[in-house]
Amino acid sequence: MNTANIGADTALKHDKKTDIGIIENTYIIDDDAISSFLTENVLEGFSKNLKSFSSAKVALEEIFAFEKAGTSPFAIFLDLNMPVMDGWTFLNAVAHQHESFKKRCKIVILSSSIDKAELCRANKNQLVLCFISKPLDEAGVATVKALLSGEKHDSANYS
């Protein structure tokens, strides 16, 4: 796997036992505890460090703090519909980060929304890698891995 296609040389480590790339840091941002739990279980083995947030605002504060230190999550699985700060507001805040952050960090919208306008809006956002309908499953994880590695991947689960 060529990590240059992913945007960060150390973002993806290769696991020789399973031949699956392992992401260094992944955040799940979802106010629904059950959905977050299910996403964590599906992402087991996907990331070396997996952290969940029930608040986009708290996650954003941590991201900004880590970014000042020169580190950041590599993959973020983001719900759109949350109280206090929704996914769109989160994306707008992240859009003001340094270009290096935007190259390193890939955001996957993980939403139960079936609103075509939201799907279209997500597809137009350069920070968004893909839009996946909840619940995340193994096919969705395979799609994300393929997109992160720069491979073309056909799936009915993302747009």
From TrEMBL:
<protein>
    <submittedName>
        <fullName>Two-component system response regulator</fullName>
    </submittedName>
</protein>
<feature type="modified residue" description="4-aspartylphosphate">
    <location>
        <position position="79"/>
    </location>
</feature>
<dbReference type="Pfam" id="PF00072">
    <property type="entry name" value="Response_reg"/>
</dbReference>
<dbReference type="InterPro" id="IPR052893">
    <property type="entry name" value="TCS_response_regulator"/>
</dbReference>
<keyword id="KW-0597">Phosphoprotein</keyword>
<feature type="domain" description="Response regulatory">
    <location>
        <begin position="25"/>
        <end position="149"/>
    </location>
</feature>
<dbReference type="InterPro" id="IPR011006">
    <property type="entry name" value="CheY-like_superfamily"/>
</dbReference>
<dbReference type="InterPro" id="IPR001789">
    <property type="entry name" value="Sig_transdc_resp-reg_receiver"/>
</dbReference>
